[in-house]
Write a structure and sequence with these properties.
Ribosomal_uS2_bac/mit/plastid, alpha/beta, three-stranded antiparallel sheet, Small ribosomal subunit protein uS2, 8 strands, 233 residues, Rossmann fold, structural constituent of ribosome, Helix Hairpins, ribonucleoprotein, ribosomal protein
């Protein structure tokens, strides 16, 4: 756990990333009050000292999980985070969901595994030329099916069991993922904006969940924490 403390984040970095901006004050969840510094122009402002404290705790948990070879699933389906979610996950060897959360990914993993297996079998058959005797239209249909399944399951294709931890970029948008993790007893790290319920996740990180710069900053830190846990630079 000591190694996780090497990751540090300054208040200036959080400010520069725009992590301090919450939602309009009229859209807030009162449960976020302990993390809010004040209000400006009708928008809630986070107390960045508390954001930093929660963020460092979350990163420490991620590093610990990675060090123990736990499977960490990264979930970032909103458009501002989708590409970066995929980039960070692939760079660190993490499974990910960057398009849409599929119900049952955790709670009905056995069925999900069958779909993943079918995708892998179709890709292998394509690579081995087993579809070459099909008509042009049939090959096209197979290719389209593979593309569609890749979008759905590509990020979790290497999962052989339910994940050990979830890192969720928007706990309101991906509440389905959070709910399934809770049912399965899987710990969740998640960004909680001022309109969220911080009780829904184990390690809420109170910060802006809309600004691309803030989300990319968070994802870079997640990637760094995973690499540190795995002993990589």
């Amino acid at each position: 756990m000591a190694s996780a403390k090497k990751i540090d984040v300054t208040l200036e970095e959080l400010m520069e990333a725009g992590a301090h901006f919450g939602h309009q004050s009229k859209r807030w969840n009162p449960l976020m009050k302990p993390y809010i510094y004040g209000e400006k122009d009708g928008v809630h402002i986070f107390d960045l000292a508390k954001t930093r404290e929660a963020l460092l705790e979350a990163l420490e948990e991620i590093t610990k999980a990675a060090k123990e070879s736990k499977v960490i699933l990264l979930v970032g389906t909103k458009k501002q985070a989708s590409d970066k979610t995929k980039e960070i996950a692939e760079a660190t060897g993490m499974p990910y969901v960057a398009e849409r959360w599929l119900g049952g990914t955790i709670t009905n993993f056995e069925q999900m595994a069958k779909s993943i297996k079918r995708l892998e079998e179709m890709k292998k058959k394509t690579a081995d030329g087993e579809y070459k005797d099909l008509t042009k239209m049939e090959r096209l249909m197979k290719a389209r099916e593979i593309t569609k399944m890749e979008r759905k399951f590509g990020g979790i294709a290497k999962l052989t069991k339910a994940p050990d931890m979830l890192v969720v970029i928007d706990i309101k948008k991906d509440k389905g993922a959070v709910r399934e993790a809770r049912v399965a007893g899987i710990p969740v790290v998640g960004i909680a904006d001022t309109n969220a319920d911080p009780r829904s996740v184990d390690f809420p990180v109170p910060m802006n969940d809309d600004a691309t710069k803030a989300l990319e900053f968070f994802l870079e830190l997640v990637g760094k924490a995973v690499k540190m846990g795995k002993g990589k630079k």
